[in-house]
Amino acid sequence: MDWAEALEKWSELTGAKEGFYISQQARNNKYTAVLCASVVSNTKKEKLTKKDLMFQIYRPNTGLQVRLESLAEIEKKYRKVESAEAESWWRAQYNASQRVCSHAYWRSVCRNASDCEVGLRVRTHHVLAGSVLAVWARVEQVLAARAHLNKMQVVRIKTDDGLKIVGTLIPKNCVEPLKEALSSDAVSVSEQKFDQPDAK
């Protein structure tokens, strides 16, 4: 979620506890900026405690989080700030998350930096699609030899152009060996890349 989107969302907020927060403590001389938006509670209590008040959390690198957090949890980790104070930290993490995983951003080091995608806002997924039943035995053989997981994941993708693709998710370390195995006796080989237009 870039800064402009965050400001737009912030402009819709009206609650006293809603808005931008930054972390209480710096990690690697950096602060975490988040945007908190309250969620309507369906509790029957007359007086709500900080544990009862739930918020959606938006992060610069990954946007809206699935898990809600209580005001009590938020205030343990963050302090409320004006948008001007949050802006530089928000922009820094947003810009870094294009190519730098969360481990490298927060600790300056990642054991698997070249392949790590934790906290990235843009990820690369390799999908094998099309008429693959005739070569399925070879696909399984390549995946079994190199993939850490024995199960294959089927995915459905809809591109920005509206193209719908159903295929098998291929781990990064299996892409080149699989391309070699399948193209060795193929009549034709095609590869398509779908890039995010807003990935700046």
Automatic annotation (TrEMBL):
<feature type="domain" description="SBNO alpha/beta">
    <location>
        <begin position="1"/>
        <end position="121"/>
    </location>
</feature>
<protein>
    <recommendedName>
        <fullName>SBNO alpha/beta domain-containing protein</fullName>
    </recommendedName>
</protein>
<dbReference type="InterPro" id="IPR026741">
    <property type="entry name" value="SNO"/>
</dbReference>
<dbReference type="GO" id="GO:0005634">
    <property type="term" value="C:nucleus"/>
</dbReference>
<dbReference type="GO" id="GO:0042393">
    <property type="term" value="F:histone binding"/>
</dbReference>
<dbReference type="GO" id="GO:0031490">
    <property type="term" value="F:chromatin DNA binding"/>
</dbReference>
<dbReference type="Pfam" id="PF25373">
    <property type="entry name" value="SBNO"/>
</dbReference>
<dbReference type="InterPro" id="IPR057332">
    <property type="entry name" value="SBNO_a/b_dom"/>
</dbReference>
<dbReference type="GO" id="GO:0006355">
    <property type="term" value="P:regulation of DNA-templated transcription"/>
</dbReference>
